[in-house]
Amino acid sequence: MTLRIKKGDLDVAQALVDFVEAQALPGTGVSADAFWNGLSALAHEQGPKNRALLQKRETIQQQIDAWHIARKGQSHDAAAYQAFLQEIGYLVPEGSDFEVETANVDPEIADIPGPQLVVPITNARFALNAANARWGNLYDALYGTDALGDRPAGKGYDEARGARVIEWAKGFLDTSVPLQGGAKWAHVTAINAGASLEFVTSKGAITLADEAQYLGHMEADGWRGILLEKNRLKIEILVNPEVGPGRTDPAGIAAVNLESAVSAIMDCEDSVACVDAEDKVLAYSNWLGLMKRDLTEEVSKNGETFTRKLYDDATYTAPDGAAFTVKCRSLMLVRNVGHLMTNPAVLDRDGNEIGEGLMDALITVMIAMHDLKSEGGNSAKGSIYIVKPKMHGPEEVSFSDEIFTRVEDILGLPRNTVKMGIMDEERRTSANLKECIRSAKSRVAFINTGFLDRTGDEIHTSMEAGPFLCKGDMKSTPWIMSYEDRNVDIGLACGLKGKAQIGKGMWAMPDMMQAMLEQKIGHPKSGATCAWVPSPTAATLHAMHYHHVDVHAIQDELRAGGARGTLHDLLTIPLLEGENLSDETITREIENNAQGILGYVVRWVDQGVGCSKVLDINDIGLMEDRATCRISSQALSNWLHHGVVSEAQVMQAMQKMAGVVDRQNADDPLYTPMAPGFDGVAFQAACDLVFKGRLQPSGYTEPVLHARRLELKAI
């Protein structure tokens, strides 16, 4: 039973009270009374507004459903549809042109294009790894993955593979930081760094083709470092003839380090399973440790145990002799939950759970005050970065802006200390993106696209329009192309360049790095200043794309070229349109979706794991979170609703795939099999997501997952 304490007119779980008062508040200058009174004000003043906005979502959805039902069997009238959406307030009038006014933005957000990590804040090891992923060893990233076309064989060091890695990496240096006269890095036999940079070759001494790329040098404990730069991203060449590859390298180069995960989102939302006060305290505790820079984790690796902690910054000497600091940690953003969910950690005066997003806003910002009060911390500009997901349209973005204003007042922070990231992952936000940005024009520091959540909302919004295409086929339809282009173009037109990130979504296959190197270069080419990657290693490899592509130049070209994509295309519903699918195609689609749902949900419900690498039906590891679950469950719900498949077919597939998932998790000692009984809480949760998916608010998975996880925890 949860112990609770009265705090004014709030009823708060004791675990949260203890954390806030004993750990989080001390050092902020905010009193306990001010904090709890502030949270009460948020709950009782913003709470009714929150619920009204959620009711508006439901009302609009009912109107859209009714519109499609009334026209069932008729050809789609795009002009009438758009007029209808305007009439019900789904589409709002677009105002005059403007540019955002966001100020005090750190260079990692405003100026440096590069990879971005997203990690569950409840996993301290992952969080530390992400924060420390600002730099990555290119040799290691190439050697340990399939980036070269194959994977390392055996346990020992393969000298032939190592030679291939070094050759590949030096070829990359030839293009990113070319040497004078077309000389090759492979021919360098010594490097001399000081007021100038000199490379010794058999043909004499040379320097860089562009000497401005040389930033500085350092020497410490037998290591010499040379710091270079391309497209605002740094490269560190480490020389030590006594260590690793340096023993056989002609110039003693032991490592080529790339500035990698420039920023990292510490996630309290889609990648975690936080259903009560105990879970929330874990999330908040890890965020506190990051902000105070005292988070540690004991790690066992290769038979050794060590303590992982945040890296310290490095000191370099510029060519003019001046010392300067090089950041060794990613700039950290924190993602709060959206407006939908409540949490039993805090009850209002009427005994209702308060909005979890309200609680997140006050507590994560209060915790970040520890960083604002420290030297050399996360933000050099005195800003706190909050990513806000799952907002539907400008009114909800404006509400988030209002919440952060109230939080700043409660905590005594200057206005717009909190910077907002707008997740462009709901259809009503995509269709009104310009006005969404305007609603937070003094705070916005981030917009991005996310195919998975966005497609889940696409299906749910137009559920009654008819059966949808298979998931894979939707990626080449007009709406998704318009969505991706408009996000960049509207962001640029609203003046985000130099003030905010424009991001793209996740590479979900962490074991397929060669394919990532081939494909993900499309994100910087699209004008996006950041894109999500699933691991620090992937960040290092993806960083090379930002050396090959000058994103700032691309953005200038795009803005000069005018807008791409149209609202008409964005509102085109990706339906089957009478296409006849073969029985084989239908079975494959059902089983792929069922297997993905079960593989994710069984860990979420049984083990409280909100994001992990889950084997798909072909035993390929995919990064799964609630967004992937949302699209799969909505896709099956749509086909069920329109009779493409029967309940019996889907249940047969669910049971068959439960056996597949059981087999894939056979080596996990914490795993509870779903077959042959199919009566466990996790299997029931997966069935709820599919068979009751049409009834879930906006098609979200959270209500079902939270309820079933709480049910299991109560057993």
Describe this structure in words.
By secondary structure, the protein is of the alpha/beta class. It has three domains: 85-134 and 262-570, Malate synthase, domain 3 (TIM Barrel, Alpha-Beta Barrel), CATH 3.20.20; 136-259, Malate synthase G - maily-beta sub-domain (Beta Complex), CATH 2.170.170.11; 583-714, Malate Synthase G, Chain: A, Domain 4 (Up-down Bundle). An eight-stranded parallel barrel has the order 3-12-17-20-21-22-23-24, surrounded by six helices. Strands 4-11-10-9-8 form a five-stranded antiparallel sheet. Helix 1 (14-24) runs parallel beside helix 8 and helix 20 (583-607) crosses helix 22. The longest helix is centred in the N-terminal third of the chain and has 39 residues, at 32-70.
Helical residue percent? 40-55%
Structural class: alpha/beta
For the secondary structure, the number of strands is 26
Tally of alpha and pi helices: 24
Name the features.
alpha/beta, Malate synthase G - maily-beta sub-domain, Malate Synthase G, Chain: A, Domain 4, eight-stranded parallel β-barrel, 24 helices
Task: Please summarize what this structure is.
Helix content is 43%, strand content 18%.
Secondary structure elements and pairings:
Layout: E1 4-7, E2 10-13, H1 14-24, H2 32-70, H3 78-87, H4 107-110, E3 114-120, H5 124-131, E4 135-137, H6 138-143, H7 159-176, E5 190-193, E6 197-201, E7 204-206, E8 214-220, E9 223-230, E10 233-239, E11 253-259, E12 263-267, H8 277-292, E13 296-301, E14 304-309, E15 314-317, E16 323-326, E17 331-335, E18 342-347, E19 353-355, H9 356-372, E20 384-388, H10 393-411, E21 418-424, H11 427-431, H12 433-439, E22 444-449, H13 451-461, H14 478-493, E23 501-504, H15 513-519, H16 522-525, E24 530-533, H17 536-548, H18 551-561, H19 567-570, H20 583-607, E25 612-615, E26 621-624, H21 626-641, H22 647-664, H23 681-691, H24 702-714
Parallel strand pairs: 3-12, 3-24, 12-17, 17-20, 20-21, 21-22, 22-23, 23-24
Antiparallel strand pairs: 1-2, 2-18, 4-11, 5-6, 6-7, 8-9, 9-10, 10-11, 13-14, 15-16, 18-19, 25-26
Helix pairs in contact: 1-8, 2-10, 8-9, 9-10, 10-12, 13-21, 20-21, 20-22, 20-23, 20-24, 21-23, 23-24
